[in-house]
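Fig. S4 source data, part A: sequence.
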Amino acid sequence: MRKAKSPLDVYMYLPNDCEKLFGKSKMTMASDLVSRRIRLSEIKDALLSQKTPESVRDFEALTELLQPTISEIQIGVGERAVTIGGDDVMFRHTLSFYNKTPIAVDVWDTMSDAALSERVDKIQSFKKFYVGEFLYLDMIAVRSVSNNPETFGKCVAAILKKSNMPLILCTKNADVMRAGLAAAAGQNPLMYACDMKNRMEMAKLALEFDVPLVVSANGDLNELKSLAAALQKAGVTKLVLDPGAGCGNSEIGQTFLNFIQIRKAALDGDADLAYPLIALPIASWRRSAKEIRASAADKSPMESVLADAGYFETMTATALTVRYADIMIIHGLEPYEVLPLLHVTKMIYTDPRTPASVEPKMYTIGNPTHESPVLFTTNFALTFYTVESDLASSNVDCYLLSVNTGGLGVEAAVAGGQLTAGVIQAGFENAAFDFDAMACKTLILPGLAARLQNDIEKEMKVSALVGPMDSGRLVKWLEENWPPKNKT
C-alpha cells in the first residue's frame, strides 16, 4: 500500500479549484490532509461533486495514500465514543501519534448493586485539570466472574442505565458474551477476547452484532498472527490485538518486546498485524492475588501487597503507553495510580510539531479593578496555566497578559529573542490595555525575565517590578510588594 509522506504525494490528486471549494490553496489542502488537520471524509462530498470518472479515481487514490497503516477502530457511540489506532510511525518525533490511548477501568458482575453503582460513579466522575483542560477516564471494562450469562447481561444493563461510557465486555465464554452483547445492543462495545479455542463462536458474534473483537494468544505472536489472518478471511475486520499480559518482573520485559515487535512488523507491511494493540496492566493484580495468599501465611501486611500491585500496574501502564498500547484496562482507581497514567497519555499524544500554547491575549483573574496588579507571562500552555492556577487558587484579582512567544517558556523566549520589551508592548497594545487608567502604572515581570526590566521601563514608560522566579511564590510576593510604595 502506498503511503503519503509529503504534501506533494497527494497534491496531484486534488482538484485545481481548491480555493473555490475549500477557501484554501491546493498545497495548503494537501498539507492539511497529510498532517490530518483535515480528514478526507470531511471533504468527500466536495471532491466527488463533479461525478466524473477522473474525480472518482483521484478520490480512490487519496483514500489509499491517506489510509493509516494501523487500522482505526471506533468503540462506543455518541460523544463518548473513542477511536483507537491510526498510527503510521514507530517514533512520535517522526510525525506524531494519533488517537490518545483510552483508559478502561474494570467492574465485575458479582459486585452488589450498591458496590457496582458506587464504582461506576467513581469512574465516570473522575477528572483532573491539567494544562488548560480536564483529563478523564474513558471506558468501563465489564468482567464476567460469575460465568453466568444472565448475571453478566444484568450487570451490563445496569451499567448502561447509569453511564454512556464505551464498554469492553470481558469473557471467553461465548454464551456469556452473547448475553452481554444483547444487553449492550447498539452501543458498539469491544469484545474481549477471541482465542484458538473459541474463535468460531466469537467470530460469529462479532459479525452478528457488528462490533470490534480482541484477538488473544497468551503472548504467542505466531499464533496471534495466524488467528488474526483467519478472522480476516472469515470477514472480521475490526480487530484489536492482545500481545500478552505479563505481570511479573521477568514477564513484563517480554510483553514490552511483544508490543514493539508487532508494531514494527505492521509498519513494515505485515497486514495481518496492522491493528491496534490492547494492554492489560490489570494483570498486575493477578500477581498480587498470589502474594496476598502468601502474606496470610507469613503475616505480611496486606496493605503493602495491594500498594505494590497498584504501583506495578501504573508502572506497566505508563511504559506500554510509550510503546504502542492503543487501549488498556486497569483496576486501581486511587489518584496516585491514575494521575501518572493520565499525564503520560496526555503528553505522548500531543503533536510534537505544534507547541502547546494558549491564545495570546489579556486574561482577567477574579474581578480585577484599576487598583489590581498587572502581570505577564508567555503563551506556553504549561507556563501560563501554572501561573494562572497559582493566582486563581489564592483568589488574587489581577490582569494577566499572555504574550505570543510561539509557545516558548519565559527563559527560552528571553534567550532566543522571542520575548522582548517590544513584543510585550505589542501584546498590551493588541489587548487595548490602558496603563494610564490604572492606579499604579506598574508591570510585574516574571523573575526569569528580569533582564528586560530596564528595556520595558524605557519603551513602555511604566514602572517594572521583578517578581519571583517561581510562580508558586507569587502570592506571597504580592502580599509583601503590592501595592508598590512608589506609585507612578
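Fig. S4 source data, part B ends here. The first helix runs from residue 7 to 11.
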